[in-house]
């Protein structure tokens, strides 16, 4: 601790002494390796920040990084850096400050996790478990797609293909042993599964992969809960965690696929949406403006309902929908049913009854004194689809929205001599323009515009992260032609993680040992006051501005001195000129006096 304090003092003095700054940097010239090792250690465990005091002046603080800060995970850093939201002033400090307590709790849990080697090992490979699970889901669904329904006998494989699979297995195993890579492991696993399918059968292989998936998902869930410290949370917090609920649902479908039916495994492929940010944006393009889409869809249903009523009132005979002729085969009846059918004379006792759908429908319609349900038009079988309002609504909704030209595409083509010909034309055109052109395109437009907005927002966020300081909000252009570059500024002067480390320092340090700046920041953090964060300010820029002012003052002083010298020279020249004029005037007076005296004497 004493050595660290000495290093911090030297670090502060090095800003005013270049020789001391050079000595603090490890170099190959220094033959003492312990000295270089100590300098590396102190440099990596020392941070600096800039704070704003009550009088709005900037102050630099150099402090030792607390040991607990080493346990903050890289995934959390990446997540906070990319998801911190900007406030109304364009600063991310407020959202970052709100998450400091969660990050501090994660540090404490990760430190505690180091004392549990098994759980720590499982939690360390969280991303690997996720990748393995997705590959297992793909393999399972490939087996289901190619071999379902499963048969009792094992699929036959030719000797050449069998030898090829064995060769691929051996070569990939040799590659994995000598040079382990992800591609080699995948090849080995795929060839092994193929060998199992053609040796034990697809169903046992599927059961084995399903069991492995359940076990791996359990391990993956434990790794997630262990990495996030879920075991220390309350049950209510766990059950309201969206990520935990998602993985529990994943486990449920794994068990359903293993115990109930293999078709449940297809749901596991939707994990690709959870893994890929682009697909998540596709889903968000629908859900983000879900209310607008739902209201537009309700408007479409209302319009379809109104068009259905008009169609039922005036054009019910035009609703003739093409149907495929089907022969319904009835299972041979029981003895009692045979007697009943024999009495009715429907069919023979020991034969299967066959009914033509058209004949049956016509007979049923005649019994109810209704128009026939099935009619034949030019040899094509058509069904009357608007004899009841509910069927008219269903037909208009189903056929009208799915046909590019609207409901008019499936209605009977009317003759121009019919009295309702003009009304039919208006009906078809109104449905086409209002429902197909306007309403449906409104829904599509909302989805497409939302997706475009999400993409532009993502690009804007990436631009801000690349060219704007996370802490003070200064742009990269503010550091052009300055002594400190933008990269040095965000790494050394306003490093966002150094501010987190300082907040952690005032949380873990004994208040009786606080320095003046630490007491000030501790009080501000306790009051949740963010005024101590610099906003659009940096000491390096202020120093550059101060140097610029000094240079300008020196330039003005030099100009003033030259002007003063010029004025002095001019005043001297004026004095000399004045003396010369006085002397000339005296000479003229003397000459004039002599002339007058000589003239007087001449007259005498």
Automatic annotation (TrEMBL):
Native source species: Homalodisca liturata
Its membrane topology: Multi-pass membrane protein
Domain of life: Eukaryota
Chain ranges of the Ion transport domain: 190-458
Keywords, sorted A to Z: Coiled coil, Membrane, Transmembrane, Transmembrane helix
Family annotation (Gene3D superfamilies): 1.10.287.70
Coiled coil: 553-587
Subcellular location: Membrane
Pfam family, one: Ion_trans
GO MF term (any one): monoatomic ion channel activity
Residue stretches spanning the membrane: 118-148, 160-179, 205-224, 244-272, 293-315, 429-452
GO CC terms, sorted: membrane
Major localization class: membrane
BP-aspect Gene Ontology terms: calcium ion transport
Keyword ATP-binding: no
Protein known as: Ion transport domain-containing protein
